[in-house]
């Protein structure tokens, strides 16, 4: 979800700019917000890649054996998946 990631980073960047406008002495808090936004974005991206990397195997409806998600027939009993 690149759009959600970008929205989160934009929100944090806006908050950082607003904070700078309200009180320039809090520039370090703004920097912290931006760093946090980038970290959250990396974390979200890591979580989403984790989900795609660990795609659950397709279980055969006939014998219940785990099969490759791309397979069309069961490798154990040849039933259609
Ligand atoms: Zn099977």
TrEMBL record:
For this UniProt entry, which segments traverse the membrane? 12-38
Q: Which UniProt keywords apply?
A: Membrane, Transmembrane, Transmembrane helix
Specify the domain of life of the species encoding this protein: Archaea
Q: Name it.
A: Zinc ribbon domain-containing protein
Q: Which organism is it from?
A: Halocalculus aciditolerans
Q: List the taxonomic lineage.
A: Archaea, Methanobacteriati, Methanobacteriota, Stenosarchaea group, Halobacteria
